[in-house]
Predict the 3D structure of the following.
Amino acid sequence: MTEENTTISYKKFVGGKGIQNPVWKGGKYISTEGYVFMKCEGHPRANKGGYVFEHILVMEKHLGRYITKSENVHHKNHVRTDNLIENLEVLTRGQHTRHHNLTTKIYKRSC
Ligand SMILES: [Zn+2]
């Protein structure tokens, strides 16, 4: 989780446009960056609208604890909307940066 990610825009949600979004299903939306957000009021990572990255929530549910600030949840196939537990893994920030530097430079943000 970088500083950049915490300030991710949620334009598609504000202004009620999220409701017209075809992927909108009971408190989910996809940010302009391509990340899936889920409604989770009261979560320590929740943004202004009370939304949290779905991949974080899936991994936290799997682990039974919160993801710490020094950890990143990585999408093994680099598809940000593929939030099945099989596609996710927890890496430390260092491991995650290294992984992306070694594989591709296209994915600058965490995925
Ligand atoms: Zn990644």
